[in-house]
Amino acid sequence: MNLLEKDQLYIWHPFTQSGIEDISIPITSGEGAILFDEEGNKYIDAISSWWVNLHGHAHPYIADKINQQLRTLEHVIFAGFTHAPAILLAERLLQHTPKNQVKVFYSDNGSTSIEVGLKMALQYYYNIGDPRTCVVALKNSYHGDTFGAMSVGARDSFNVAFEPLLFNVQFIDAPTKDLAEQSFLQLKMIAKKYKIAAFIYEPLLQGSGGMLMHDIEGLHQLIKFCKEENIICVADEVLTGFGRTGKFFASENMSTAPDIMCLSKGLTGGTMALGVTTCTKEIFDAFVSQDKSKTFYHGHSYTANPLACTAGLASLDLLEKEECWIQIKAIENMHLNFATRLSQYKNVEQVRILGTIIAFDLRTDERSGYFNSISTYLKREFLKKQIILRPLGNTVYILPPYCITQLQLEKVYDTIIEVIKEL
Ligand SMILES: *Cc1c(COP(=O)(O)O)cnc(C)c1O
């Protein structure tokens, strides 16, 4: 049996309908924005390997740091013990988060960072003797695939089998330009009816929801209102963190800071699984007590894994360099030019850019959204031309590693144009 046959025999892939979809491509190595397969084909990774990669694949600097750490300490229980990579990463992260964030809680992926954020917010109110259970979230949102994260995400075909078991959440419209006022009114109405514990949102960019972009002032208005009403704002920066939107965190675009922030994806530069939830002093203090029942009883076996924290520190070293921000800006500028090119095509709608991300919708005869069948066709066409792109239904987007070269990005643009011309 070759490797691929073994894959088909033994592996159950995520978000994959093996009754329909093509077989997987075995990738053997990576360098910069390029991935190589068994036959030596080169692919440009224009989606940063599911939005995680920042500085390129198999980055030698990050690899060396992890290698050293691996030979020193690979893992240790994180209750009753601590270690330098976790401490130093927390210190460094808090230099970039808004000033009101003072504590770092580690977990091991984006979904768990959300579970932690929700549980912190709900237990905060429990601990201070004002129990609240109402959570507000945005329509079309995605916060991960565990039960809590599913509950605050859009109710759609992805989680319909679990619908009766998901906890009750009040959904408001996303504060896009058109819906910002409506969204604000919905929030005010809910606040009249319920005691809201938390408002969870993907700041400025709802990724899986179709690269939906918010109106900055519209989102800010929601956050400001929450602050006035003592509603805990949980910013899911799992995707938007670490320069993705042109700032270190998307929350920096607003003068009011969130109370809790959830981080993962780019946190380790795309090298290792790690999640972080940060919070304010006020939230942390509500858990500090002589009374054991006020403890935050949450943790994962691999919490604050030293290798992952080391990867996080190494990625920050690269991210804090000026060159990296020049690259981020250059990508945004190239996207702006590409947007002009795209606007000439009649089937292209809603071209939008936020930092290193460009997205647009293709007009088709089918309903817009994830299940629009054009995505399967597009994905295959792009792959034939050795570009890795995964449209979300009829929404095509580019979300490249920051190290992508101008030539590589031009190749991605040209390929997209070629493909949409043939439609
Ligand atoms: C990917 C994602 C998550 C979930 O992260 P996982 O590491 O895949 O569990 C949560 N929120 C947002 C905004 C995401 O993009």
Layout of strands and helices, then pairs:
Elements: H1 3-10, E1 27-31, E2 34-37, E3 42-45, H2 48-51, H3 60-70, H4 84-96, E4 101-107, H5 110-127, E5 134-138, H6 147-151, E6 170-172, H7 180-193, E7 196-201, E8 205-206, E9 212-213, H8 216-228, E10 232-236, E11 260-263, E12 275-280, H9 281-285, H10 306-319, H11 322-342, E13 348-354, E14 357-362, H12 374-384, E15 387-388, E16 395-398, H13 406-421
Parallel strand pairs: 3-15, 5-6, 5-7, 7-10, 10-11
Antiparallel strand pairs: 1-2, 2-3, 4-12, 8-9, 11-12, 13-14, 14-16
Helix pairs in contact: 3-10, 4-10, 7-8, 11-13
The structure holds pyridoxal-5'-phosphate.
Key phrases:
four-stranded mixed β-sheet; 16 strands; 17% strand; single chain; 423 residues; Aspartate Aminotransferase, domain 2; 36% helix; 2 domains; 13 helices; Aspartate Aminotransferase, domain 1; alpha/beta; seven-stranded mixed β-sheet; binds pyridoxal-5'-phosphate
